Amino acid sequence: MYGAGVISGLLGIGGGVFKVLGMDVFMKLPMKVSTATSNFMIGVAAAASAGVYFSRGDINPLVAGPVALGILIGAQVGTKIMEYLNSKTLRLIFIPILIYIALAMLWKG
What we know:
The protein has 109 residues and is mostly helical. It has 5 helices and no strands. Helix 2 packs antiparallel against helix 3 (31-56). It starts with a helix and ends with a helix.
């Protein structure tokens, strides 16, 4: 996970993709467990940093409110959809996303 954080920081992209890939490939966790764990880890880090940014006045509540509402609704919908998907289908959805991110990194590099 340290490596995922370093790579995502160097490339300027979200680290969730690397965390899911690492848990799936290296730790041999099921895809559903990997995605849920990655989402939880990112959520904890975001919640910790949000307090700092909010106390400094860097967060506009008129923007953050609708974003938070969208996240809550998206999380509920995503959870319901994931109940019906098996790990193989989820992996087939995730692979094109990884390929796209890899090509975008190569293009920017």
